[in-house]
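Hello forum,

I keep getting stuck at the same step: I have a sequence, I want structure tokens, and every attempt I make locally crashes halfway through. Rather than fight my setup again tonight, could one of you with a working pipeline run this one for me? It's a single chain of 221 residues.
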Amino acid sequence: MEVSGRVAIVTGGAAGIGRAVADRLTAEGASVVVADLAGGSFRADLGVAADVRALFAHTFEQHGRLDVLVNNAGGVFETWQRTIDVNLNGLVLATQLAFEAMRGDGAIVNVSSVAAFGTKPYDAPDYSASKAAVVRFTASLANHEGVRVNCVCPDWVATPAVQRSLAELTAEERANVPPLVPAEEIAALVLDLVRDDSAAGRIVVRWAHEAGPRVLSGELS
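Reply #2:
Ran it on my machine without issues. Output:
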């Protein structure tokens, strides 16, 4: 897909990975609607269905079309239900609305996490479960009626939220944290998936301890 001239929505786009993605899409010539509670071009709570629907209505009012959706909004919140609502339920609804809007021609990239993988205990089970669901959701859809759906799973990324989390760790805990992946690198992976018309159902994992991304296409079905 040629990015220039396209219309994109980036959720959670006011900072961190989302901001890097929005900046990269804009630099490539796309018109980007940044949806976020903390700023951007449209204030929306992705855990609230009415806000998600309002976001898509706004995009069509302003641009008359949608070509790209980057489902990036997410995090660990005050309750398990809130985490599931933002990380999974809002993403699923946004994807459904994107299918309707794109009408068989578009690209969706979901941002999951390496927390989606593994069999060991994890200190935020609601987060890991929601991110695992995003991976399986992506692989299940793949190329849905002409709309390509792919997923990026980053490790620790150099974002303001991660920096705040690191500041709360002890020196010993920080010593066990892997090198942070630049947000711009994740944005580049997202852009690659948007551009590559052969990419569908692709799961791209960026472990901090590895030199580059690992593609898990076809291994999760």
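Strands lie at 7-11, 31-36, 42-43, 68-71, 106-111, 143-144, 147-154, 203-206, 214-215. If your local run keeps crashing, start a new thread with the error log.
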